[in-house]
């Protein structure tokens, strides 16, 4: 049976004139909005210039500095990253000690043998409770910390992780839950370490650690973790009967894998930029707003007329920055 394809021009109710008119209205509204915002900004600047007797250049500089005060300093970022690095290192080491003698670490099918009659040992209990408390703290602190580019991805990650841990605990699926926790803590150690060396300005060490992090991330999040999902999706139905909570649990595991794929895309973008530029620039979770360098702002001389200082040629052919107006050079005695 043949079907005829009609162009939009021949469809019933389609009017090209209305479409062009609507596009023109939207463009006019956008231009009007931008013009009003620019006029309001200019009006504010003019009023401030009259009240504080400052040039437009000085007011804009003050505004940039005021916005920068609300952003965390490098020391604050370093302390925050140090705390997370210490926790992930402790959690991974403690998880390895707890899981070393567990049979499901070496053979995932043991997660399903004997279910639901699987006892919880004291070390697994502590491993779960400490991890749950940590992710609750991250979820709560995310709203008053500086907002990152992946704010909603991280919020979804924390909520999915908490739901997974709570559901696995209530349904006695702590064996597969402990495997997921152990796999996730490994790569985060190198990510936080790379950030620390970046803040400390050890660029070569940062590049090396970030390369290790990329390899560990791909192995743990895109190879080992999908192996756990394969066991819960394919092997588990062959060993034990299914129940409604199982499908919710497995869906959350798959959603977590989708987030891993999205973050892998961001990580590979950083890797490609680092290969092109020769060093790692920024991080996956950098601030969403524009970063302002205090050192560059402080080192820039300001002219009293609000202009930008120009470089003056010296006698030997090199250039040197001009001195600011009002600062007269010292005379030779």
UniProtKB/TrEMBL annotation:
<feature type="region of interest" description="Disordered">
    <location>
        <begin position="285"/>
        <end position="333"/>
    </location>
</feature>
<keyword id="KW-1133">Transmembrane helix</keyword>
<dbReference type="InterPro" id="IPR006634">
    <property type="entry name" value="TLC-dom"/>
</dbReference>
<protein>
    <recommendedName>
        <fullName>TLC domain-containing protein</fullName>
    </recommendedName>
</protein>
<comment type="pathway">
    <text>Sphingolipid metabolism.</text>
</comment>
<dbReference type="InterPro" id="IPR016439">
    <property type="entry name" value="Lag1/Lac1-like"/>
</dbReference>
<feature type="compositionally biased region" description="Low complexity">
    <location>
        <begin position="286"/>
        <end position="299"/>
    </location>
</feature>
<comment type="pathway">
    <text>Lipid metabolism; sphingolipid metabolism.</text>
</comment>
<dbReference type="Pfam" id="PF03798">
    <property type="entry name" value="TRAM_LAG1_CLN8"/>
</dbReference>
<dbReference type="GO" id="GO:0046513">
    <property type="term" value="P:ceramide biosynthetic process"/>
</dbReference>
<feature type="transmembrane region" description="Helical">
    <location>
        <begin position="151"/>
        <end position="170"/>
    </location>
</feature>
<feature type="compositionally biased region" description="Polar residues">
    <location>
        <begin position="314"/>
        <end position="326"/>
    </location>
</feature>
<dbReference type="GO" id="GO:0050291">
    <property type="term" value="F:sphingosine N-acyltransferase activity"/>
</dbReference>
<feature type="transmembrane region" description="Helical">
    <location>
        <begin position="245"/>
        <end position="267"/>
    </location>
</feature>
<feature type="transmembrane region" description="Helical">
    <location>
        <begin position="125"/>
        <end position="144"/>
    </location>
</feature>
<dbReference type="GO" id="GO:0016020">
    <property type="term" value="C:membrane"/>
</dbReference>
<keyword id="KW-0472">Membrane</keyword>
<keyword id="KW-0812">Transmembrane</keyword>
<feature type="domain" description="TLC">
    <location>
        <begin position="76"/>
        <end position="276"/>
    </location>
</feature>
<feature type="transmembrane region" description="Helical">
    <location>
        <begin position="205"/>
        <end position="225"/>
    </location>
</feature>
């Amino acid at each position: 049976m043949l079907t005829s394809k009609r162009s939009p021009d021949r469809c019933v109710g389609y009017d090209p004139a209305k479409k062009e008119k609507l596009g023109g209205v939207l463009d006019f509204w956008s231009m009007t909005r931008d013009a009003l915002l620019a006029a309001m900004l200019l009006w504010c600047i003019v009023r401030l210039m009259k009240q504080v007797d400052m040039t437009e250049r000085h007011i804009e500089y003050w505004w940039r500095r005021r916005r920068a005060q609300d952003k965390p300093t490098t020391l604050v970022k370093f302390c925050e990253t140090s705390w997370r690095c210490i926790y992930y290192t402790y959690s991974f080491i403690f998880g390895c000690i707890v899981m070393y003698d567990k049979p499901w670490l070496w053979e995932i099918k043991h997660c399903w043998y004997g279910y639901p009659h699987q006892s919880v040992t004291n070390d697994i209990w502590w491993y779960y409770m400490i991890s749950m408390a940590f992710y609750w703290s991250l979820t709560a602190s995310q709203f008053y910390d500086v907002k990152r580019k992946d704010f909603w991805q991280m919020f979804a990650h924390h909520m999915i992780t908490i739901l997974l841990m709570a559901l696995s605990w209530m349904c006695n699926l702590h064996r597969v839950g402990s495997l997921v926790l152990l796999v996730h803590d490994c790569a985060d150690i190198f990510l936080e370490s790379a950030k620390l060396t970046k803040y400390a300005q050890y660029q070569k060490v940062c590049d090396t650690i970030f390369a290790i992090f990329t390899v560990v991330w791909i192995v743990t999040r895109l190879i080992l973790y999908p192996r756990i999902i394969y066991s819960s999706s394919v092997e588990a139905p062959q060993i034990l009967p299914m129940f409604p909570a199982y499908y919710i649990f497995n869906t959350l595991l798959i959603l977590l894998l989708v987030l891993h794929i999205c973050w892998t895309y961001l990580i590979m973008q950083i890797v490609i930029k680092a290969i092109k530029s020769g060093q790692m620039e920024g991080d996956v979770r950098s601030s969403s707003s524009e970063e302002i360098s205090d050192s560059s702002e402080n080192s820039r001389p300001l002219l009293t007329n609000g202009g930008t200082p120009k470089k003056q040629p010296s006698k030997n052919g090199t250039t040197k920055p001009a001195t600011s107006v009002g600062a007269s050079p010292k005379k030779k005695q």
